[in-house]
């Protein structure tokens, strides 16, 4: 019981904004394909810089590491995509009505800014490959 892993504190709004701002600024490097300029070392260095900037605004004595940064980015990216997709579904419904509430925070809007149209709406004109009806196969 002496070596139980303690839970880290929750992320603050300032940490989340710093994380999303750092990644949004360097999104081409982070999501880019490997090339002469986009190397694994460059990506690791970028993540280390983002980690340092997040730790500089961290009010607790416990510091975040690169693995924490990557995991949190993956989690909040998934949640932001889910919220934005739900918002787009409401916007595209017929019948009018009031506009949907904007529930995204400033760091959530940073995340949405990194998405492509295809990531949110899918491929236009595509078809379901799991559908085996005759109309799809002809």
Automatic annotation (TrEMBL):
Myb/SANT-like DNA-binding domain residues: 7-83
InterPro entries registered for this protein in UniProt: Myb_DNA-bind_5
UniProt signal peptide: none
Pfam families: Myb_DNA-bind_5
Cellular component, GO annotation: nucleus
UniProt feature coiled coil, ranges: none
Source species, domain of life: Eukaryota
PANTHER family found in the cross-reference section: AGAP001331-PA-RELATED, REGULATORY PROTEIN ZESTE
Protein's name according to its UniProt entry: Myb/SANT-like DNA-binding domain-containing protein
Species per Swiss-Prot/TrEMBL record: Mytilus galloprovincialis (Mediterranean mussel)
């Amino acid at each position: 019981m002496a070596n139980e892993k303690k839970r880290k504190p929750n992320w603050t709004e300032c940490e989340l904004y710093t994380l999303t701002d750092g990644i949004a600024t360097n999104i081409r490097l982070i999501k880019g394909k490997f090339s002469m300029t986009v190397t694994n070392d460059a990506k690791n260095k970028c993540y280390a810089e983002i980690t340092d900037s997040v730790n500089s605004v961290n009010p607790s004595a416990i510091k975040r590491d690169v693995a924490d940064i990557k995991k949190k980015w993956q989690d909040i990216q998934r949640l932001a995509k889910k919220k934005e997709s739900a918002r787009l579904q409401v916007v595209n419904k017929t019948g009018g009505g009031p506009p949907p509430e904007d529930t995204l925070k400033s760091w959530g809007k940073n995340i949405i800014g990194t998405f492509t149209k295809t990531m949110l709406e899918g491929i236009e004109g595509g078809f379901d490959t799991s559908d085996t009806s005759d109309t799809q196969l002809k």
